[in-house]
Specification:
Layout: H1 2-17, H2 20-37, H3 45-64
């Protein structure tokens, strides 16, 4: 759970600073690596959902608040 929160913070800050597309690319590169090494070839839907939601929040913060 600690890694999920830390990853969400990283994706949120990346989405705010660099944009949503860069953060989304980072998410899929990391999750593809995790899928190959830790999850026996299956996508971890919880990690993807947490990452996508933090990217969406970061995008909305950048779009409407900054």
């Amino acid at each position: 759970m600690k890694n999920n929160i830390l990853g969400a913070v990283v994706y949120l800050s990346t989405a705010i600073v660099f944009g949503g597309s860069t953060a989304l690319l980072m998410l899929f590169i990391k999750e593809n690596s995790d899928r190959c090494h830790y999850y026996n070839g299956k996508w971890n839907k919880i990690d993807l959902l947490c990452g996508c939601s933090s990217i969406l929040i970061g995008f909305l913060v950048k779009r409407f608040l900054l």
